[in-house]
Amino acid sequence: MKLTNPESIQESEKEFIDTINAELDWDVIEQMLLDKHNFEVQDDIEYKDGNLIVYNNEIAYKFDFQIKVPLSVIFNRVGKCLSMSTTREEEAPKNTEDLEMQDASTTQTPSGEPDKNNVEEIAVEIADLISEINNNA
Asked: Where is there biased composition of kind Basic and acidic residues (predicted)?
């Protein structure tokens, strides 16, 4: 025997979740993203879903969002990753020390081809970073 209409319960739960979502402090969330993952949100954060869950034997709220973050990858002419950052590097290196470091790390295999192991390492690092971002979003 039903005590109430299930659609009414679901609608009320959705309104409750939407109310909590509307009250989230995005300045704090963005600061946490910067502190923990070292990236800033570039565009609007897209709300995907929210729900009431049990987490570590405690009632909690789970909200899923989709976010865009910048990704800067610096690699040399043979494909070796020199730097990877989720903070956008708008400017090229200004001092000659940076340029000398880049030139010194630019080596090729005896055949003149880029080192395939380095290219594979870069691809794995990028994939790991993207996966981490998506899993933590």
From this structure: 87-97
